[in-house]
Automatic annotation (TrEMBL):
It catalyses: sn-glycerol 3-phosphate + NADP(+) = dihydroxyacetone phosphate + NADPH + H(+); sn-glycerol 3-phosphate + NAD(+) = dihydroxyacetone phosphate + NADH + H(+). NADPH binds at residues 12, 32, 49, 106, 138, 253, 272, 274. It comes from Hoeflea halophila. Residues 178-312 form the Glycerol-3-phosphate dehydrogenase NAD-dependent C-terminal domain. This is Glycerol-3-phosphate dehydrogenase [NAD(P)+]. HAMAP family: NAD_Glyc3P_dehydrog.
Amino acid sequence: MSRISVIGTGAWGTALAAAFTRQGHDVRLWGRNAATCEEISRQHSNQAYLGDARLPESLTATPDMTVALEDAEIVLFVAPAQSTGDVAAQATAHLPQDAVLIACAKGIDNRTGQTQSEVIGEKLPDHVVGVLSGPSFAADVVRGLPTALTLALPEQEMAQALAQELSGDAIRLYASDDTIGAQIGGSLKNVMAIAVGICRGGGMGASAEAALITRGYAELVRLGVAMGARPETLMGLSGLGDLVLTCSSELSRNFAYGIAVGRGQDVSGLKLAEGVHTVSIANEIAARHAISCPVMQTAGLVLSGRMSADKARTTLMSRPIKAEHPETR
Ligand SMILES: NC(=O)C1=CN([C@@H]2O[C@H](COP(=O)(O)OP(=O)(O)OC[C@H]3O[C@@H](n4cnc5c(N)ncnc54)[C@H](OP(=O)(O)O)[C@@H]3O)[C@@H](O)[C@H]2O)C=CC1
Ligand SMILES: O=C(CO)COP(=O)(O)O
């Protein structure tokens, strides 16, 4: 049994906290909203983010970092990607010396281009920093449905030991030492899911969606490898696995966001879609590495209002004809 602290009382933080509590760990949640913390601790629900899902009675949440992080052995960072740096800075004064930190948000810091583990590592340089990522909807995990994820730590043995410790009936963890690779899939699949959503919302057909997923995956691999990911990691749960989930279910907020854009609907009230915040920096990084990413680039243009969904379709369809796998020829 481990003492786990979870930073973030949104859908994913709360779902992970519930799942690890059910697996017998001593879990404490931190959230910035005192009323949500009170609801989790006393009513065992988080209506705003997880509707009627029932949380374990022994799970408590607090807006006080000192209380949340007391004696923590493992700390999961689960605030939205662009706020990870802020919450990591807030945690500095309260973290036990040996706590292992795990980045759970999916996105690239749009000020620095850093992955989540790099952001955390910069603020908290004396700690081991790992990554938890893979195909997993909070709505499934909070209900105890089976999920498999990648747990990456800088050393394989350490990852293996922690994967063993944290796996249980509902969460099965696969160990990896590719911390960069385990974050690229989760960050870029959000952008691809928006692109595929635009295609769905624009009524472009299932064949076009399959083409976008496949060509989007080719971009994800090209850019991921340039950023330091191992190709096999991108083929795994945190890459292909998450791309498949997010591009095929309307439970995905990124996919749903894309659908709304494709239909020409107002997106201002929609839930967090991390791809919207990652697309520009991902395109910047691709340009820096001279990696061709037409799907991501087109998605960026549509999302910033500089291109219509129809124009995106004709742009992608009229690109020069080329080999499917130029790198193998
Ligand atoms: N939902 C899912 O199924 C999954 C999500 N993820 C990833 O987890 C991350 C978090 O997503 P998720 O929990 O779903 O998001 P939600 O939108 O459900 O919740 C976001 C939470 O973060 C809080 N928050 C927002 N800004 C800040 C800030 N600046 N400082 C501290 N807390 C803040 C919000 O608090 P408040 O209520 O006060 O606004 C809220 O509790 C994302 O990167 C997402 O991609 C990964 C796997 C699955
Ligand atoms: O990352 C997720 C599933 O693995 C959740 O996807 P959305 O953020 O698009 O809902």
